[in-house]
Amino acid sequence: MSRIELTNLRKEYGNVVAVNDLNLTIEDGEFIVLVGPSGCGKTTTLRMIAGFEDPTAGEIRLDGSIVNDLEPRDRDLGMVFQSHALFPHKNVADNIVFGLRMQKVGKEEQRRKMHEVAELVRISHLLAKMPGQCSGGESQRIALARTLVTEPSNFLLDEPLSSLDAKLRRELRAECDRLHEQLQKTFVYVTHDQEEAMTLADRIVVMDAGEIVQMGSPIDIYSNPVSYFVADFFGNPAMNLIEGEFVQNGSAEFRSDSFTVSLPEKYKDISPGKGTFGIRPENVQVSKANGGDTRNIGLVEPLGKDTLLYFETAAERPFVAIVEGTESHSSGEPVELSFPGDNMFLFDGTGDRIRA
């Protein structure tokens, strides 16, 4: 078993509260991703679990035992850093077995485990090379192997793919997912990249200003954001969010300088006042102009399977719709937009989600 429990965990740096009374239980074998913008407290939380930072208050339990006072080496955790932190003067094989040497493992056992993990992460052909002769993706695999070889009970990964290009990130995301499935161990992964969070996690923990703002499965986070912050953070392209006000005019409406939208019956009792209307680009329905309210397409961005249509509005950022890549559209073309009621998101003036 390798259960991680964080209870009322808090970290202060002088007058700055980096992590604010955080409570989280990570189950054995779970792949959990801490995600949020820079400065939200996700890396600080990971470093407290690892033992590199001391909590100001609260408890960290591993398998039911409090480990606040244990040194990092005594916590049976494997850490993969954002920087690969390989020894440049040692070859790949020596980098991998360094942790085993520190544990005074016999040479035969070192070699056996080194070849096992090298095969696992597919770097057997690199063992004689120096780190400087390896690409960024290969270096990250070496860093993974160095952590895997010590057989820790849990793996902590601090933005391990952020320095790689997009293609390599996709490849190594799949590699991390494969390793989790094969090893069946607990992975705690920190990233600011919502795509990484969506593709890797069993459960996502969204953080902001040192606090957890939402936890759930990737599809739950995407489909049922609890706030403007979560809705805006997840999605590529991002959710269309238009600021305006809710009014009661015989029926409930949302009005802004960009759109006037009739709200579904389920929102008939909505309180008048300032708020935000949201809809994801894939849920915007685009049809040929047919005598209704039209919008001119500002930009067409073909992506193959899909095409993005951009519309200029009074909002700070363009309004985006996604259509099938087989549909033919051009800049300046007038079209009609409609918004299915079941796909609308409404937020009050404080940013909280308004439920029907």
Provide an overview of this structure.
It is a single chain. This protein has 356 residues and is an alpha+beta fold. It folds into 2 domains: 4-226, Rossmann fold; 237-348, Nucleic acid-binding proteins (OB fold (Dihydrolipoamide Acetyltransferase, E2P), Beta Barrel), CATH 2.40.50. It is built from 8 helices and 21 strands. The strands form 5 sheets. Strands 6-7-8-3-9-10 form a 6-stranded mixed beta sheet, with helices on both faces. A 5-stranded antiparallel beta sheet has the order 13-12-11-14-21. The protein has a 4-stranded antiparallel beta sheet with strand order 2-1-4-5, covered by helices on one side. Strand 1 and strand 2 (16-26) form a beta hairpin. The longest helix has 18 residues, at 166-183. The radius of gyration is 25 Å and the shape is globular.
A few lines on this structure:
The protein is α+β, with helices and mostly antiparallel strands. It contains eight helices and 21 strands. It has a six-stranded mixed beta sheet with strand order 6-7-8-3-9-10, sandwiched between helices. The protein has a five-stranded antiparallel beta sheet with strand order 13-12-11-14-21. The chain has a four-stranded antiparallel beta sheet with strand order 2-1-4-5, covered by helices on one side.
